[in-house]
Amino acid sequence: MKGTGATRIFIFDHTIRRSAADSPSENRVKYHLPEEADELLKKRFQIINVWRPIKPILRDPLALSSAPTVPESDLIPVSLIYPDRTGKTYTVRPNPDHKWYFKYAQRPDEPLFIKCFDSLVDGRARRVPHSAFEDGDHAEGNTRESIEVRTLVFYDY
Questions:
Q1: How many folded domains does the chain comprise?
Q2: Nearest in space to 24 (alpha carbons), one of 78, 75, 70, 89
Q3: Mean pLDDT throughout 8-33?
Q4: Is residue 79 part of a domain?
Q5: 151 domain-assigned
Q6: N or C: more exposed end of the chain, with fewer CB within 10 A?
Q7: DSSP track, 107-152
């Protein structure tokens, strides 16, 4: 919490990812914290993921967009089908104006904090599109392995 200035953080999920090759944000709060959701949603909240490699990423790295280069019109809603519910997320329409960044050979001691949603509308990025990709310059090596912790972050304003 120290790095965010938040008053509360609730970890609602973690995922271990091994790759060879959401619901709307408010619904995440309602799903995971049903008794408190109405009060929590009256103030600012965020979804922030912490993504960390399990070993150095030599193949299929995670790329992050420069959020200002991805207009809302390039975000396409898609459904996530779970055994017990259907969630929502976005896919990104290709656009040559997007700017994407990644770190080659990212190590376990170099985690990424990814803003997936921010309820505050103040002109700053409300989300950072991100995706793994095939890097043709580095197609050899072990497949990417990482762990992702997904958090709901709450503020008193």
A1: 1
A2: 89
A3: 69
A4: yes
A5: no
A6: C
A7: -TT--EEEEEEE---SSS-S---EEE---GGG--SSPPEEEEEEEE
